[in-house]
Amino acid sequence: MSRIETVAVLGAGTMGHGIAQVSATSGCTVRLYDINEAAVAGGLDRIRGNLDKGIARGKVTQASRDTTLANLSTATSIREAVTGADLVIEAAPESMELKESIFAEVDAAAPAHAILATNTSSLSITQIAAVAKDPARFVGMHFFNPVHIMGLVEVVWGAETSAATRDTAVDFARRLGKEPIVVRDAPGFASSRLGIVLGMEAIRMVEQGVASPEDIDKAMELGYRHPMGPLKLTDLVGLDVRLGIAEYLHQTLGSEAFAPPALLREMVAEGKLGKKSGQGFYSW
User: Fold this and answer.
1) Is the pLDDT of residue 1 over 80?
2) ∠284-23-146 over CA atoms, to 5°?
């Protein structure tokens, strides 16, 4: 297809606002959708905050900030957001039912040429794509948090994703300054499958009193040169989010390596969700 110029991002939260930001910075016209004005305004505020921090650190120019913001508009209707879009990227919570519902609406309103992408970190691309009349135009584009800093995008091709769709997604990721990897649609893809195993084992080690969260993280940071330990990463992603992914992978892959430890379930039940709640394995 032709060059992507207009992007609709569905969801203005943790991932969606970042995807909208980098898309707008790349020169695209971006419509950021969420369910109400407060939600989209919150997403824009976070984008402004990211850009202002970038200016303070000398990473972003004032001109780039102004251009990025000028390329952004908001919508509280999916139909309004996707009309005329070349690419639609959904960044809703990790619920198969929610994503299927969103894409059923998107499929009815988006242009026939538009590529439909989901930012899911683990759910089946093929299953979500089944709601579309043309699943060949459906692909996974899994970004990483924080989107404006992290360099990786997993491009996930489903059973019916066309080569043209996959290649356009790869090219777009590169246009955003990201490094894409191409992964077949399998539970957890590459990153979540490996990351969740490490995270669940680290939590089991805390549960068994093997070492403190700080020392377990330090083992991976200094011993294996990971930029962030698995427990600090779990706090950043959200303990509830990681629990949901672990449950899904345990169910679909059948491996006890993905079984959520009791400690993780207890912390989520207590509202200790990590950075977003102020308390997880660390105090934030």
Assistant:
1) no
2) 15
31 forms bridges with which residues in the sheet?
8, 73
Q: What is the pLDDT of residues 184-216, one digit of tens each?
A: 999 999 999 999 999 999 999 999 999 999 999
> How far is residue 282 CA from its own chain's centroid?
23
Q: How far apart are the first and last CA of the chain?
A: 45
Query: What dotted CATH number matches 6-184?
Result: 3.40.50.720
Listed in order, the ranges of the chain carrying CATH 1.10.1040.10 are 191-269
Q: What is the DSSP letter of 83?
A: T
What's the CATH number for 191-269?
1.10.1040.10
pLDDT of residue 2: 63
Beta bridge partners of 117: 89, 139
**Angle at CA of residue 191, ends 190 and 192, nearest 5°:** 100
Reported pTM = 0.91
Residue 208 CB neighbour total at 10 angstroms: 10
Note whether 116 and 106 are within 8 A (CB). Answer: yes
Q: Do residues 10 and 33 make contact, with C-beta atoms less than 8 angstroms apart?
A: yes
Q: Which residues of 7-17 are buried (b: 16+ CB within 10 A; e: fewer)?
A: bbbbbbebbbb
Q: In 3-state terms, what secondary structure has residue 93? A: coil
- Binned at pLDDT 50, 70 and 90, residue 89 comes out as very high
